[in-house]
Amino acid sequence: MNYSRQRELILETLKENVVHPTAEYLYEKVREKDKNISLATLYRNLNKLAQMKLIRKIDGLENSAHFDHNTHEHYHFICDKCGKVFDVDCNIAPETFKQIQDTTGCLITGHDITFHGLCSECKGENQ
User: Fold this and answer.
1) Tens digit of pLDDT per residue, the chain (127 long)?
2) Distances (CA, A) of 75 to 38, 85, 103, 125
3) Domain that holds residue 79
4) Closest alpha carbon to 19 in 84, 65, 112, 76
5) First to last CA, the chain
6) 0.90 exceeded by the pTM?
7) Which residues of 42-72 are buried (b: 16+ CB within 10 A; e: fewer)?
8) CB atoms inside a 10 Å sphere around CB 14
9) Same structural domain, 81 and 34
10) Chain-centre distance of CA 37, in angstroms?
């Protein structure tokens, strides 16, 4: 991939904002550093970075895709009340994939697992 100052700025900003931001949120943050960047440039570069597996594009969390600089295998937890997205270590259920493969006869080559519920802060507010 050819070097792009704007792509580097987008990746740097994503790494600084580990809240699994949407493109719109990232756009606001990137524009604080470079007023000349367009939303189309941001989307194009996010999709390119995801295609190259330098970031993860997380669809299905809300109406907008979220982006994650952590490309290691992990799950996500979304708080139904505040909307925060948390990383969850995928080693909590390592036998799950073997069981699925054994049961279905399919070969799993990737996964996107998302848990929903209340984060510890929101859960505390309900008690």
Assistant:
1) 566 888 899 999 988 877 788 889 899 999 999 999 999 999 999 999 988 888 888 776 566 676 777 777 888 888 888 878 888 888 877 788 889 999 999 998 877 788 889 999 998 876 6
2) 31, 10, 22, 25
3) 74-125
4) 84
5) 51
6) no
7) beebbeebbeeeebbebeebeeebbbbbeee
8) 22
9) no
10) 22
